[in-house]
């Protein structure tokens, strides 16, 4: 009889980048939650990224929290040995010319290679290699060796005579080729035509990354010391792999956003193709999950194939935050308004800025800070121009992404959100847990779950800029009432405590998965 194994859950996404979006932010919070309650879990990522270890550390994670497909097949999940430096590179018959982060290797006056090195002493040793470029007789780059931030050569790109990517190889720690991909031109893009994998003394061929991803998920099931379960998060990336799996494992799809292309037509609008595909493969899924009961109802009403929809919120407030000393309202920066949002059309930040211009006319000391990375540079440029045209340029700041926003929340009097649609934005609950009153368009989905209208903030008609401005002016006009709203936000955030959210995950997913192994 097979020995019983404990469950491990893999949270599936594309990559943990230097700046993560809301989906990966939710995964990281969930990972901490699962570990807090002694449930084994890892974040499993698809894309190759030689900076992954650095990104993990930036977001408070460790190598053991991650299972990357390329690291898995390259055998590089764990490396703590010597880091390669420029001094390790010798090319016979050359002289070396050093210029800042670059070492050029010259033979008879012609450049044959360039070694580029990392410079940040917090993360790298002196002259640690980032990449090496090799040049042909005409001076054109024909090969680039890329080094993982942990200090070993990880991959090589080969270029054709036109400088286009033609072949890519990835190595194990002994420098042996484990993955090879062949590339071709498709329109303006380079695309992989085939992947070849050297794994367990066999050669495996995959037509695309989705096939390889399905094989990776199967291997996680076959080789894990635990019974594996999968929770897909960035579904348009991870579902194609799950649908190609041959091994059985409990699978759950978490919807972080709206399920129709028109966010205002959730009952009648065209369904997202990902959801349609999930219904087609309904027998492969244990359930879908959404962050709010209203979206679960809306999705279930459109469901075919018997697939069940469950509700588990994405936001989680750590015990440490709930236990932290509350910020006296008098210690907050007067008339400071914040939003945490990437610069993207979904966030409709031009509405927020237009509303703020009205607020600033009433309260010249008012300021607006928008924190988040830039998805679309043109939108940022347009926002800055809008601020100049509105005479509020000195009162508005667009600030790049930062992992730790505690001090930002603790200094704000209002958190304002103008999105066109959401799933359930983590930032709303994070702000509430720091005692920030909330003002938001009443959009699908999420704001109504955390804003008790008139108690800890205001819900306003979606798309109504004047109503958004009026709500902020009303709030700022009564500082005593705003202080009461701050207290109410602290209290309402308790709904999303770790024990409360974990109980849902345990009852609706963990127990379900264990019952269907």
From TrEMBL:
Q: Name one GO molecular function term.
A: glycosyltransferase activity
Give the record's keywords alphabetically.
Transferase
Query: Start and end of every Glycosyl transferase family domain?
Result: 332-490
Answer yes or no on keyword Transferase: yes
Q: Which SUPFAM superfamilies does this one have?
A: UDP-Glycosyltransferase/glycogen phosphorylase
The molecule here is called Glycosyltransferase
Q: Which organism is it from?
A: Lacticaseibacillus brantae DSM 23927
């Amino acid at each position: 009889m097979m020995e019983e194994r404990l469950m491990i859950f893999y949270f599936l996404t594309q990559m943990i980048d230097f700046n993560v979006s809301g989906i990966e932010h939710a995964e990281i919070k969930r990972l901490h939650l699962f570990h807090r309650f002694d449930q084994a879990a890892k974040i499993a990522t698809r894309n190759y990224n030689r900076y992954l270890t650095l990104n993990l550390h930036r977001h408070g994670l460790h190598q053991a929290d991650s299972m990357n497909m390329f690291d898995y097949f390259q055998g590089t999940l764990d490396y703590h040995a010597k880091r390669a430096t420029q001094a390790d590179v010798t090319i016979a018959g050359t002289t070396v010319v050093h210029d800042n982060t670059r070492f050029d290797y010259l033979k008879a006056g012609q450049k044959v290679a360039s070694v580029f090195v990392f410079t940040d002493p917090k993360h790298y040793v002196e002259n640690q290699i980032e990449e090496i470029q090799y040049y042909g007789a005409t001076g054109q780059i024909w090969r680039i060796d890329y080094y993982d931030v942990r200090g070993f050569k990880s991959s090589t790109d080969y270029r054709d005579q036109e400088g286009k990517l033609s072949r890519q190889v990835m190595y194990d720690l002994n420098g042996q080729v484990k993955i090879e991909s062949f590339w071709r031109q498709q329109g303006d893009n380079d695309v992989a035509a085939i992947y070849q994998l050297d794994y367990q003394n066999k050669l495996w061929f995959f037509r695309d990354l989705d096939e390889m991803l399905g094989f990776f998920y199967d291997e996680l099931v076959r080789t894990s010391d635990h019974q594996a379960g999968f929770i897909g998060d960035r579904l348009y990336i991870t579902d194609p792999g799950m649908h190609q799996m041959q091994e059985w494992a409990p699978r759950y799809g978490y919807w972080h956003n709206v399920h129709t292309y028109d966010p205002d037509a959730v009952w009648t609008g065209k369904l997202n193709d990902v959801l349609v595909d999930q219904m087609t493969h309904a027998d492969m899924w244990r359930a879908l999950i959404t962050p709010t009961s209203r979206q679960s109802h809306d999705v279930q009403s459109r469901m075919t194939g018997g697939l069940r929809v469950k509700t588990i919120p994405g936001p989680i407030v750590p015990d440490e935050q709930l236990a932290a000393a509350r910020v006296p309202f008098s210690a907050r920066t007067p008339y400071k308004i914040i939003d945490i949002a990437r610069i993207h059309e979904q966030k409709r930040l031009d509405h927020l800025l237009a509303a703020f211009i009205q607020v600033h006319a009433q309260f010249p000391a008012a300021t607006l800070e928008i924190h988040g990375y830039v998805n679309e540079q043109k939108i940022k440029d347009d926002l800055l121009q809008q601020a100049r045209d509105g005479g509020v340029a000195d009162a508005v700041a667009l600030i790049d992404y930062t992992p730790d926003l505690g001090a930002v929340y603790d200094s704000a009097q209002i958190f304002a959100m103008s999105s066109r649609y959401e799933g359930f934005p983590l930032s709303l609950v994070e702000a509430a847990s720091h005692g920030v009153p909330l003002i938001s368009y009443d959009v699908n989905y999420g704001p109504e779950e955390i804003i008790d209208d008139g108690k800890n903030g205001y819900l306003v008609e979606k798309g109504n800029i004047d109503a958004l401005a009026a709500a902020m002016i009303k709030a700022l006009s009564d500082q005593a009432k705003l202080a009461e709203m701050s207290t109410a936000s602290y209290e309402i955030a308790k709904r999303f405590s770790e024990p409360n959210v974990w109980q849902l995950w345990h009852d609706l997913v963990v127990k379900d998965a264990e019952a269907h192994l």
